[in-house]
Amino acid sequence: MQAARLLVERGSLRAQSEDWGEYHFLSMPSPGDRVAVPREGQNHYLTVLSVHHQPIRAADAGSSEPCADVVAKWTGAG
Known about the structure:
Number of strands: 5
Number of helices: 0
Mean pLDDT: 89
């Protein structure tokens, strides 16, 4: 499993992204993938726009881990 912070676009592209916190994925999603996220008692449906990988230097591998942000557009809930 891979962990990534989920940033959700719910308004216009210029609006501030909502930080929904860190989620675990079986594998890192790709742009265009659809994901269903349980939140506030509902499933929220998102389309992945981009993944921002944050690698670390090999020399720092023992002290920190690489991470990523998944940016997605909210498309509905149900």
